[in-house]
Design a protein that fits this description.
about 130 residues; mainly beta; 9-stranded antiparallel β-sheet; two-stranded parallel sheet; globular
């Protein structure tokens, strides 16, 4: 992943490209950014393509995808994206708090992230990494 050549330029912050686990979600990319000059809340930019009305983004306490998001530990952060907000398939949101974009402790790097639909159905899952 970090070895070799890529034409993609680093944008800083953290990124999660989720693997769809349902036909209701076609693709999902989430990017987290903190302003280094102040302690303002984290910004989330997203690209979501799917056919469900509402999405819930969950960050879990563990970082092991071999067991799937449903067994990835407790949910340490949750965000509801209403279809109205995601109608264009992409956007930018200011979260309600600042997330630690680091490893260990309260950091989100290395944690499982999932997108969940109505009834708790996991639509996509991945691991948060450096961007």
């Amino acid at each position: 992943m970090c070895n070799g050549f890529s034409t993609r330029t680093s944008a800083g912050g953290a990124i999660a490209v989720l693997r769809p686990t349902s036909t209701l979600l076609d693709s999902c990319c989430l990017q987290f950014h903190n302003n280094p000059s102040d302690s303002s809340p984290t910004n989330l930019s997203y690209i979501l393509h799917g056919t469900i009305p509402d999405y819930e983004v969950r960050i879990h306490s563990l970082g092991d995808l071999t067991v799937g998001a449903s067994s990835a530990g407790e949910i340490v952060y949750s965000l509801l994206l209403l279809k109205a907000a995601a109608a264009a398939g992409s956007g930018l949101l200011a979260l309600d708090r600042r997330l630690e974009l680091g490893v260990g402790g309260d950091g989100i790097i290395g944690r499982v992230i999932s997108v969940v639909g109505k009834g708790g159905v996991v639509l996509g899952e991945g691991i948060i990494g450096w961007n």
